[in-house]
Each structure stands twice: as C-alpha cells, then as structure tokens.
Amino acid sequence: MNAIRSTLFMTYAIIWSVLSAPLVVIAGPLLGGVWAYRFGRVWRLGTQWGVENLLGIRPQVIGRENMPDEACVIMAKHQSAWETMTLQDCVPDDAFCVFVLKQELLKVPFVGWGLAAMKMISIDRNAGKNALDQVVTQGRERLKQGYYVIIFPEGTRVAPGEKRRYKPGGAYLATHVGCKVVPIAHNAGEFWPRQAFLKKPGTVTISIGPAFDATGMSEMDVNQRVEDWIEAEMRRISPHRYPDAAQAA
C-alpha cells in the first residue's frame, strides 16, 4: 500500500510542479517579488494536499504560541523534504518564509527555478567565512522585508536518532542582525525517510521551542542553546530513537 501511495504522490507532485512552478518563475519579474511568494504558496499548498491526502502524512503542532509575530530566525531539525513545506505553516498567516540553502539547488528544473524566483538565501558552501557573510547580507535584507528565515543548522538531512554538528550560520545571522531565534524539533523522518522513495502515513509532531533574543549573545551561546533544546526535545518526541531517553523513561 505504501508503494502505491508513494507512486501516486510522486506522479502528482511532478505534474503539479510542472504546472505551477512556472507561474512562480514568471510572477517575480512581471508582477513583483511578493507575487512570486504568493504563487509559491499556491505551489506549496498544492503539494501539501498530495502529502496529506495521498501519502496520509499530517502535522501536529506543539508550542505554536512560541512563534513571534515579527520576523525572526528559525533553526530547525532537518530529516526530510517534508519540513521544507510544512514549517512554513508555523509562522503567522500573512507572513512568508525564506530558507538558507546551497546554490546548487537553484539549478534543479522547476523546483530550483521557483526557489530562485522567491529570492531564497543561497550560499556557496565552499566559500568558508564568505559563506557566513553571504548569509548575513541576504538574511538582514529578508528580515527587514518581514520574511522569516529558516535554517537547518546541521546543514543536511539527518536520520531519526542521529545528530550532526550544529553549524554557525543561523547563530551568525541572528547575532549580527540582533533578532529573535526560535528552535524547532520534529520527527518527520519517521514517515518520510531521507533519500527514500517509500513514505508511510502518520502524524508528524512539530514542537516549537521558546523564542529568545540573540542580541548581545555570542554565536557559540546561541548555537548551544538551540542545540540543547532541540536535542532534548527530540528525545521527548522520539524516545525510541534514543536508548538513553528510553532507559530514563
């Protein structure tokens, strides 16, 4: 059954992207940048319809009251492509999000072209310190425009129960701009495994942590605070993935 669900969704997602992504690409230059985001939302919501109704994967959000009303930096766990869509529903209804992503993604047909039209924060991961400066330059501008900035501090998708080094990009942006930071944990990888065709139905728990102001904090302190909260929360929502958490329970 999961194979049928996954096949139907993949077919639907490809057709929907071919039909809707060009509208995003065209809208920016012709109608102005905000229209690229509006059409991008239509594209995303159409894809999410397929996720919920064909794959049977639905979200359950905890701590929605922790999300600030003003633009901020969101630092989240990254387990699959699912959260790149659904995390955007965690911000206020009239707000838009941008992601910090690698430049190579902008070259992917349809999806990448749409991301480029929406002015995502793209960086050259081989640029070292210059990559961090790229994040600050682009991120400051997006935050001033009222966009929430989402970054995955581990830098890549990580399987449930695993952890990678938390990189400084999000903390570097927040401390240099002086804005609030929101940590988010979730267990999307339980149902949408990374680099896997087969998905399975279920309810993904998204847990939004308390926001804190990064003004005056060091990058190391911001990163450590985010890591400590996310990893502790992962043990709470997915204890079976962490032997130490299961034993404590």
UniProtKB/TrEMBL annotation:
One Pfam entry name: Acyltransferase
Domain of life: Bacteria
Keywords on record: Acyltransferase, Membrane, Transferase, Transmembrane, Transmembrane helix
Domain Phospholipid/glycerol acyltransferase residue range list: 72-189
CDD domains the UniProt entry points to: LPLAT_AGPAT-like (cd07989)
A GO molecular function held by the record: acyltransferase activity
Source species: Azonexus hydrophilus
Protein name: Lysophospholipid acyltransferase family protein
Pathway: Lipid metabolism
InterPro entries per the UniProt record, alphabetical: Plipid/glycerol_acylTrfase (IPR002123)
Keyword Acyltransferase: yes
Bilayer-crossing regions: 12-37
